[in-house]
Design a protein that fits this description.
Helix Hairpins; Beta-Lactamase; Heat Shock Protein 90; five-stranded antiparallel sheet; five-stranded mixed sheet; alpha+beta; 50% helix
């Protein structure tokens, strides 16, 4: 869940950072670009005006010169008197910026607010004709040039809205995921409670049966006619006690977390140890153990846990051969993993039972706790591996364990 949350938050976060960079770049670049466009237009118009002045020193031809960009323009002599203005009423009057300060050394530009409330771009530069010098004050409308600024702002607004929408979807998705996670946990809790109830029923049955036997045989001991008969009843009490002890041991082993230290271990040696431990029981059942193992496959494992797993798999294989037979144990290295197989040609597992074989306390046998395969899978997964079972009725069963060598 944490990894998924980080991924879900990471995507909009990266998108937001990209949008922020784009917005900053667009807003930062738009005003200089608009000013550059205005400057270019202003210099082109000032060059045209200078040509008109050269062609008509009387300046009358300037009255016919206009473009959609011009707000106004004026020519001021060195004495600060307006010699031409698009507003003819201002001709002959002192220029508002009269004096030598009104004459820039080169080109000056700034934005100016007109009395109408419109902001214009004001370009001031000198033009010359026949030893005459004029100051050209050219005011240009900015709405066309400022379109790039408006577009950048509109683009940033749209992208910001999309970003907010993305974050809204992200928050909604996280809310749904968390709700789903809570729902899943609640379902898991209910399943766990149901499993605990089932486990309690199994334990009650498994414990009650030997307890009833112990109670009955103990009562018979009290009424036994002779020592030999009492000894027989006592032996049965011991048998039932051992059955209860085996059940408790299975529960403890299954519930135990992997506390052991993993050490490099030769798996072939562990197989030999398991065969030695089960040799007597296997011989009594007429079962032969065959080993098809590589010379040496070393893995980092908790040896005791692997032995428990192998003994359980071998026990299941032996029990699947009621009339005796051969159990084959295989070991080989597959890349960076070890493959352990325990196979038999016994009765096999019915197809309807296969989905349940790894469920704790589920068993199709008349006796047993149903913890064997559940424990085996738990041990394999503790080591970062897996356990799979292939079986068919009358064809036998193959249990395959995959263990990483260096995990």
């Amino acid at each position: 869940m944490l990894k998924t949350t980080r991924l879900i938050l990471g995507i909009p976060l990266c998108f937001t950072m990209l949008v922020a960079w784009f917005a900053w770049s667009a807003l930062h670049a738009a005003p200089p670009l608009a000013t550059e466009n205005l400057r270019g237009a202003g210099l082109s118009i000032s060059a045209a005006i200078e040509q008109l002045v050269a062609a008509d020193p009387s300046l009358r031809s300037l009255t016919r010169y206009t473009t959609q960009d011009i707000a106004y323009f004026a020519l001021i002599d060195p004495q600060g008197i307006v010699r031409f203005h698009t507003n003819s009423g201002l001709v002959g009057h002192p220029y508002a910026g009269a004096g030598r300060k009104a004459y820039p050394e080169g080109i000056s530009e700034n934005r100016e607010l007109l009395g109408t409330g419109e902001e214009v771009y004001l370009l001031r530069t000198k033009i010359h004709h026949d030893r005459k010098e004029y100051l050209l004050a050219l005011a240009l409308h900015t709405y066309r040039a400022d379109k790039v600024i408006r577009r950048s702002r509109a683009g940033v607004a749209v992208i910001s809205a999309l970003t907010l929408a993305l974050w809204g979807v992200t928050v909604l998705l996280l809310f749904l995921l968390r709700r789903e996670e809570r729902h899943r946990r609640e379902m898991d809790r209910r399943e766990e409670l149901a499993r605990l109830g089932e486990m309690g029923a199994v334990l009650a049955h498994e414990i009650r049966t030997p307890l009833a036997g112990i109670k009955g045989f103990a009562q018979l001991v009290e009424t036994a006619d002779d020592t030999e008969q009492a000894r027989g009843y006592a032996g049965r009490i011991v048998t039932q006690s051992l059955r209860m002890e085996a059940l408790v041991n299975d529960l403890l082993v299954f519930a135990r977390a992997d506390q052991g230290i993993r050490l490099p271990t030769d798996l072939a040696t562990l197989i030999d140890d398991c065969i030695a431990l089960s040799r007597a029981e296997d011989a009594n059942r007429g079962v032969t153990i065959e080993v098809e193992a590589a010379s040496q496959v070393t893995a980092n494992v908790v040896a005791d846990r692997i032995v428990q797993m192998l003994l359980n798999l071998m026990k299941n294989a032996v029990q699947a051969l009621p009339d005796g037979g051969i159990v084959t144990i295989g070991l080989r290295q597959l890349g960076d993993c070890a493959q352990l197989t325990v196979s038999d040609k016994g009765v096999g597992i019915a197809p309807e039972h296969l989905p349940h074989i790894f469920e704790p306390f589920w068993t199709s046998k008349a006796t047993g706790t149903g913890l064997g395969l559940a424990l085996c899978r738990k041990v394999a997964e503790e080591h970062g591996g897996s356990l799979t079972v292939e079986s068919g009725v009358g064809r036998g069963t193959v249990c395959t364990v995959i263990l990483p060598l260096n995990k």
